Amino acid sequence: MSIDNSKKQNSERSCGNVAAGGKENIAASEYEDIINMPHHVSKNHPQMSLMQRAAQFAPFAALSGYEEAIRKAQQEMEEKVRRRDTPVRDEP
After folding, report:
1. What is the average pLDDT value for the chain, to the nearest integer?
2. Res 49: pLDDT
3. Do 16 and 25 touch, CB atoms closer than 8 A?
4. Is the pTM of this model over 0.70?
């Protein structure tokens, strides 16, 4: 085995292209032609700031009013349990 082939095999192993047992990972080999290409930078769209990118992944309220409805249901249930657990006093 030449030095170049040895380097290539080590590189493939570290990148996950060769699975255990020496068999080539098919999914990784599908992208072999593009994996080392330079990152594309658009000429039409300016790059987003980190704040704008982070905002895309920030949590949001998909169901408006859901938290309030849960809180109200919890309070009602707690009140029912309180009433159920409160002993009834006999009036004299």
Report:
1. 77
2. 93
3. yes
4. no
3-state SS, residue 18: strand
Residue 17: count of CB within 10 angstroms of its CB: 19
Are 12 and 18 within 8 A, CB to CB?
A: yes
Structure tokens at 2: 């030449």
Q: Is 24 helix (H, G, I), strand (E, B) or coil?
A: strand
The predicted-structure confidence for 11-45, as pLDDT tens digits, reads as follows 444 454 455 555 556 667 788 888 899 988 999 99
Burial tier of 45 (Cβ tally within 10 Å: 0-12, 13-18, 19+): exposed
Q: Do 44 and 31 form a contact (C-beta atoms < 8 A)?
A: no
pLDDT recorded at residue 46: 92
CB atoms within 10 A of CB 35: 11
Q: For residue 5, give the H/E element and its range.
A: helix 3-15
Residue whose token pair is 């004299």: 92
